[in-house]
Structure formats: C-alpha cells, structure tokens
C-alpha cells in the first residue's frame, strides 16, 4: 500500500553567490530539512546562481550546465544518502543555442524520477527570461516517486490555471513551484502588497480548484549587480498550502528558512469528495480554451 501521509519541505535561501558556494549551501540546508523529517524537498528556482536574467548578456550562458552533470551528480548522491526526494531547479544547456529553465526530480535511490522544463517564459523589466530560455517541450507531468506522486511547475508557470489543472489531472498530489520573484525596489511601496498578494492568491486558488497541496520556494535578498539599477528585492514568503488553500507553513520576507508540512492523502480524498470540482467540469464546453483569443 502506498503511504497515505508524507512530509514535504520548501527551502528559502539567499542565493546571491557563485555556483560552488550555492551548491554547498543548498546541500547543507537539504541535510537540515531531512534531519527534521522532510521526505520531499524543494529548492528555489535556478538555485546555483544569482538571478542573472536582470540583463541580456551572452556571458551568462556560461552559468548553464549539461544534463546529468554537476547538480545532478551532487544531489543524486545526497538523495540516495538521505533517502529523500529532492527537486533541483537548474539552468540547463541542452545544446549550443538551446537552453532551458529546468528541474530534476531525484528519487530516494538517487535516480532521476523526472525532468521538467519551464513551459511559460516571461519577459518583463529585469526578468528577461526569453533571452535565455527555450520554452519547455516535455509538457506538464505527474512524477511518481517512492514518497508520492508530485508535479513541478516553475515560477511564471504559477500564473496559469491550465498548467496546475493538467498536472493535477495527471495525478499529482502536490504541485511544487520553485520560484525567483521579487519587487523592483522603486515600485514596492505603491504596488508591492498587491503583487505579493496576487502571487500567493493565485497558487492558493490552484490548490482549491484542483484539491492538491501546493508548495512554493522563493529566494530572499536584494540582488543588485548591474550599475545604474536598483536590482530586485526577492520577497521570500515561501509557503505550503493544503487542498482547501489553507496555509500549512509560511516563511518570512527576509530570512532563510525551512518549511515542513504533511501531505495527507486521506484529507485530499475527503476534500475532493466534498468539493467534486473534477466531476462537474464541463469538458464538452472547454474547446475554446486552446485558442489564443476568442474573436467576435
């Protein structure tokens, strides 16, 4: 019988450092999470470097790594040693000229349970991701691990209900969102509360609409490495929500933290029995959702 309960964790960190130091730091924090009972552990988006997408600079492609190299080797060994599942977001070099914003799902025996490539790629001021990342081509997935069936979406994916819906329909019990999102300092006073609130509310909505657990891991700290700019102040606030959108664990805006919460599949089943949103979907009327726009 599969386990009906297991513990998940998100790790919130300042990652404004070089790859070697970020790797050592993340390994240490994963160990700490596992020692506290975490069984599936999520790191923030693009864990190995500062958030380089603040500019369009070809030199930043040197930060990418081929599949199954540094990050996979290190976290594969760690997952096997600790007997945990680790979700590792990284900058993937697929071939010359094709790069992805990706995440390994590494199982408890150190093998790859799955690979996800970010599907939705933003292009906003100081979030110039379209310059670096080719949209993912592996689709939305539910990955079976020895701890549970999980889905991974990445940052900008979090705004799309279709992504969460398909991931949940494929069987994901938890949707994990590794994230790198923050305020432009000059906008924070005027727009900051609404921006942060929208970010959290949309993911809580995905939890409710799909009867899934949702876990988001963000980074913290001011990353200001370009002359003449104010940088990005990453707002942290990582969280884990249950299948009714209830907050099970919540991090601060400015501290490095480990969050842990329990996934209870009996609770999930009960919620879906009482709120049978999947049952009542009018799939016969949803054809227009695949159109870019619905013209009059």
Automatic annotation (TrEMBL):
Residues forming coiled coils: none
Molecular function terms, GO-annotated: N-carbamoylputrescine amidase activity
InterPro entries to which the protein is assigned, alphabetical: Aliph_Amidase/BUP, C-N_Hydrolase, C-N_Hydrolase_sf
Gene3D superfamilies: Carbon-nitrogen hydrolase (3.60.110.10)
Pfam families, sorted: CN_hydrolase
CDD domains noted in UniProt: CPA (cd07573)
Keywords from the named record: Hydrolase
Biological process (GO), any one: putrescine biosynthetic process from arginine
Hydrolase recorded as keyword: yes
Residue span, CN hydrolase domain: 6-265
UniProt keyword Hydrolase present: yes
Protein name: N-carbamoylputrescine amidase
The species this protein was found in: Flavobacterium cutihirudinis
């Amino acid at each position: 019988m599969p386990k009906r309960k297991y513990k998940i964790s998100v790790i919130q960190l300042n990652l404004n450092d070089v790859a070697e130091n970020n790797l050592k730091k993340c390994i240490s924090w994963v160990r700490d999470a596992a020692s506290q009972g975490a069984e599936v552990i999520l790191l923030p988006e693009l864990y190995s470097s500062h958030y380089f997408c603040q500019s369009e600079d070809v030199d930043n492609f040197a930060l990418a790594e081929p599949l199954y190299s540094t990050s996979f080797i290190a976290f594969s060994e760690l997952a096997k040693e600790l007997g945990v599942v680790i979700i590792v977001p990284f900058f993937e070099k697929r071939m010359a000229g094709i790069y992805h914003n990706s995440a390994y799902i590494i199982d408890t025996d150190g093998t790859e349970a799955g690979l996800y490539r970010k599907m939705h790629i933003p292009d906003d001021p100081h979030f110039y991701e379209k310059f670096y990342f080719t949209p993912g081509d592996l689709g939305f997935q539910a990955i079976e691990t020895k701890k549970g069936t999980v889905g991974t979406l990445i940052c900008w994916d979090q705004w799309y209900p279709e992504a969460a819906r398909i991931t949940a329909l494929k069987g994901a019990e938890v949707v994990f969102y590794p994230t790198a999102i923050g305020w432009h300092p000059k906008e924070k006073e005027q727009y900051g509360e609404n921006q942060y609130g929208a970010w959290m509310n949309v993911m809580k909505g995905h939890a409710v609409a799909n009867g899934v657990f949702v876990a988001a891991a963000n980074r913290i700290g001011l990353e200001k490495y370009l002359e003449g700019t104010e940088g990005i102040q990453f707002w942290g606030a990582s969280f884990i929500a249950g299948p009714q959108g209830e907050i099970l664990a919540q991090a601060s805006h400015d501290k490095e933290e480990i969050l842990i919460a329990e996934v209870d599949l009996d609770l999930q089943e009960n919620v879906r029995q009482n709120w049978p949103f999947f049952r009542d979907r009018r799939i016969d009327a949803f054809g227009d959702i695949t159109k870019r726009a619905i013209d009059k």
